[in-house]
C-alpha cells in the first residue's frame, strides 16, 4: 500500500507533468523540423545535385546491391536496402541537418526564456505590504516570550 501511495505522490508532482508535456511538445516539434528539412530544404538541394535526391545518396556494400543498381540506376535508398546492405551517407547528412536546426531553435527558445527570467528578477517586487503597528507589536511580544 505504501508503494502505491508513493507512486501517486510522485506522479502528481508538477515536475512529472511538466516533463510529460515537454516530451509530447518536443516530439511534435521534432516532426515539424523533420518535415521542414525533408519537404522545404532538401528538395531545392536535390535540384542542385540531381533528381536522385540528397537522402538517396548511398554506397552499395555488397555485390548483390551493385548488380541491382546496374539494372536500376535510379533506385531509391529503400529499394537498395531491400536488396542488401548500403552505406546511407545522404540520409545521415539529412538527419544531422535536422539535429542542427532543432538544436538552434531550442537554443533560441532557451535564450528567450532566460531573458524573460532576468527581466522578471530585475523588476522590483510589487505588492509586499509593510507590517501594521499591531503586527510589529505582536512580533516584538513573540520575540520577548521566546527569549524567556
Structure description:
This protein is mainly alpha-helical and 148 residues long. The protein contains six helices and two strands, in the order ααβααβαα. It has a domain of 88 residues. Helix 2 crosses helix 5. It starts with a helix and ends with a helix.
The value of Rg in angstroms is 30 Å
Alpha-beta content class: mainly alpha
3D shape: elongated
Number of helices: 6
Oligomer: single chain
Biggest sheet: strand arrangement? 1-2
Could you tell me the strand content as a percent range?
Answer: under 5%
The ordered string of helix (H) and strand (E) elements is HHEHHEHH
Classify the helix fraction into a percent range.
over 70%
Distance between the termini: 46 Å
What integer is the average pLDDT?
A: 83
| Major sheet details | 2 strands, antiparallel
Number of strands: 2
Which stretches of 5+ consecutive residues score pLDDT under 50?
Answer: none
Amino acid at each position: 500500500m505504501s508503494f502505491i501511495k508513493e507512486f501517486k505522490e510522485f506522479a502528481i508532482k508538477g515536475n512529472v507533468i511538466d516533463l510529460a508535456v515537454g516530451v509530447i511538445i518536443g516530439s511534435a516539434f521534432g516532426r515539424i523540423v523533420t518535415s521542414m528539412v525533408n519537404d522545404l530544404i532538401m528538395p531545392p538541394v536535390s535540384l542542385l545535385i540531381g533528381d536522385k535526391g540528397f537522402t538517396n545518396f548511398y554506397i552499395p556494400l555488397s555485390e548483390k546491391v551493385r548488380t541491382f543498381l546496374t539494372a536500376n540506376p535510379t533506385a531509391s535508398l529503400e529499394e537498395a536496402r531491400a536488396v542488401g546492405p548500403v552505406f546511407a551517407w545522404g540520409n545521415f547528412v539529412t538527419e544531422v541537418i535536422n539535429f542542427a536546426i532543432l538544436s538552434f531553435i531550442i537554443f533560441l527558445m532557451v535564450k528567450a526564456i532566460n531573458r524573460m527570467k532576468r527581466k522578471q528578477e530585475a523588476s522590483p517586487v510589487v505588492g509586499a505590504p509593510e507590517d501594521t503597528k499591531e503586527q510589529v507589536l505582536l512580533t516584538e511580544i513573540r520575540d520577548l516570550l521566546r527569549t524567556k
